[in-house]
Amino acid sequence: MSEITPDLVRHLAGLSRILVTDEEVERFTEQLSLIVDSVAKVNEALAGIDVPSTSHPIPMANVFREDIVEPSLTQEQALSGAPDSGEGRFRVAAILDEE
Amino acid sequence: MSELIRKNASELVELLKTGQVSSVELTQVHLDRSAAVDQDVHSYLYQSPETALAAAADIDRRRAAGEKLHDLAGLPIAVKDNLTTTDAPTTSGSKILEGWIPPYDSTVVKRIREAGLPILGKTNLDEFAMGSSTEFSAFGPSRNPWDLTRIPGGSGGGSSSVVASFQAPVAIGSDTGGSIRFPASVTGTVGNKPTYGAVSRYGLIALASSLDQVGPVSRNVLDSALIQDLIAGHDPHDSTSLPESLGSMADAARKLDVKGMRIGVIKELMGEGFQPGVMNRFKESIALLEQAGAEIVEVSCPNFEYAIAAYYLILPAEASSNLAKFDSVRFGLRVAPEGNPTIERVMAATREAGFGPEVKRRIILGTYALSSGSYEHFYGAALKVRTLIQRDFAAAFEKADVLISPTAPTTAFKIGEKLEDPLAMYLNDIATIPANLAGIPGMSIPNGLADEDGLPVGLQLLAPARADARLYQVGAALEKMHEDIWGKRMIDFAPELEVRG
Fold first, then answer.
1. SS3 category, B46
2. Contact predicate B160/B217, CB 8 Å
3. Residue B372 burial (CB count, 10 A)
4. Cβ–Cβ below 8 Å for B360 and A28
5. Residue A2: is its pLDDT beyond 80?
6. Is B179 part of the annotated catalytic residue set?
7. Gap between the Cα atoms of B125 and B141, Å rounded
């Protein structure tokens, strides 16, 4: 059985920067327990064998393009989708807590 | 309804070239069709008739002036809403990006524009392409034109339904675990996931970067080939883009010959869990291929049993990282809690309000799979299983040139049926996921109707990496055999939709 508890779901949601409601915690705990039990099956395939990892289906190394300056987004374009901006920058809430 | 909208794209292109129809006329009849049926089908999240008609008028002008145009110039197309477009909102089916107008075009869209194909609109999808039904779209589900109470597949249910309901001759989709092929299977259409890296992912809003691939959706195999030939090719903006050309898919689709080809039937992707009607049509198609001179062999891929498990670790892990960019700072939604919150609290409130349930589930799952205590047991193990699946394919392709299976275990299910049961939803992709894990190309073609419910069934073709042309060759040949037997195309069995004002 998996170790997915309501506290763990809250903790993981916190790490993921998602505020979750109590109702979501309850539902996700139940659903994620089932999913985690099911995906743990990957270890059965590996019993008694040693295989390398594949992180990328078609590996390519050292992919470079010619070092030529190309047009990029203007400052105005880069800021065009921002919820808030000013003086040519993204404007955000306080980075640090008051304490 | 104009008869033009029922024609294959390859025929429409000829009519355009010979001046029998203008691009404006062709674009207008498809816009009219959307006005008549899309209230019910809900394929589109966004349409701008003015923009589409202006692009069409431009092509007509240039053709009249004798300019040398791309072969597909003037052919209207629909684009999945996870590809960026500078002249239309790009939402990826999420509230967090509602109304966002990207400052750049995706490479695929750039190629479409340069070739002069008017874009009819942006099609619906499960939020960030996470889903098999479009029910997780923040803007409501699309519906299956064969039966409006059923799902059109997902995540690309907008692109499958737009083509199946004759609102567009062709469309662009993206496939991370079956999001082009499953929708094609349940709507009686064709969809291809090219070899990983064949089509640029630049400007495709990433779900899982090592699995995502853009591809064509259409009503017949040649039409998909024409679109793949248009959008494929090296792109320096995508470091995973293949440097080499894979050749002409359209040429392969015109061969109509399978003599001497070795076709492998995957033992593990049939039988238990597959609907009887799906299996019956599958067996009939095996017999057809054999009659046409192909050699049928059985292959075994024992590790496919673990493919879904590996996929639902790798995908959430990559997605949890990719979706970190939705942070309320650079684009999209910002929700500020009461008082004087810090940026961290603004991010958390924004992501709570902006993401739907499936996206939250997968981000949390991915965060878990990557966390220090569980990394080896989950994500690390999944990457090793990925190697085993690649090896299964390598062994199978020693015996066969092309592999076949049913695309999906069932026909289209009812809207709402699997919404609260994520594991049942994930099983739809049991046959399609292995191709994404291995990076190989996979195509779904219409394979008749299931006896028990009269709904479309799909057949999946798989080939080694870079051998996409084989899929088009076998797919088009089998399609021709089917059409000769049926006396019409698969899509011509679809019931007429009710037309509104």
1. strand
2. yes
3. 6
4. yes
5. no
6. yes
7. 8
Asked if A13 is an interface residue toward chain B (Cβ–Cβ < 8 A), one would say: yes
Task: For residue B481, give both structure tokens.
Answer: 């055999």
All domains of chain A, ordered by start, with CATH?
1-39 (1.10.20.60)
| E runs forming strands in B134-291 | 170-175, 190-193, 213-218, 262-266
Alpha-carbon span A13 to B360, nearest angstrom: 8
What DSSP assignment string belongs to B25-91?
A: HHHHHHHHHHHHHHHHH--EEE--HHHHHHHHHHHHHHHHTT----TTTT--EEEETTB--TTS---
Please judge whether B422 and A31 are an interchain contact, meaning their C-beta atoms are less than 8 angstroms apart.
yes
* Helix B107-114 × helix B221-231 angle, to 10°: 100
User: CA of B303: how far to CAs of B315, B391, B439, in Å?
Assistant: 18, 9, 16
- The phi, psi pair for B194, rounded to 5°, reads -65, 170
Report d(CA B121, CA B51) in Å as an integer.
9
Q: Measured between beta carbons, which residues in chain A are less than 8 angstroms from residue B385?
A: 42, 45-46
Contact call for residues B168 and B76 (beta carbons, < 8 A): yes
Q: What is the DSSP letter of A93?
A: S
**In which band, very low, low, confident or very high, does the pLDDT at A99 lie, cut at 50, 70 and 90?**
low
Which residues of chain A make contact with B380, given a CB cutoff of 8 A? 53
Q: Which residues of chain B have pLDDT under 50?
A: none
pLDDT of residue B422: 87
Rounded-to-integer distance, Cα B360 and Cα B265, Å: 37
What the block records as the tokens of B217 is: 């959706």
CB contact under 8 A, A92 and B387: no
Question: Closest partner residue to A41 among B104, B309, B342, by Cβ?
Answer: B309
State ipTM.
0.95
A14-65 pLDDT, tens digit each: 999 999 999 999 999 999 999 999 999 999 999 999 999 999 999 888 888 8
Length, in residues, of chain A: 99
Domain annotation for chain B: domains and CATH numbers: 3-268+279-299+395-493 (3.90.1300.10)
DSSP E strands: which ranges in chain A? 85-86, 89-90
User: Which of these is catalytic: B7, B80, B122, B193?
Assistant: B80
Q: Which of residues 19 through 58 in chain A touch B, CB cutoff 8 A?
A: 19-21, 24, 27-28, 31-32, 34-36, 38-46, 51-58
Number of H helices, E strands in chain B: 16, 11
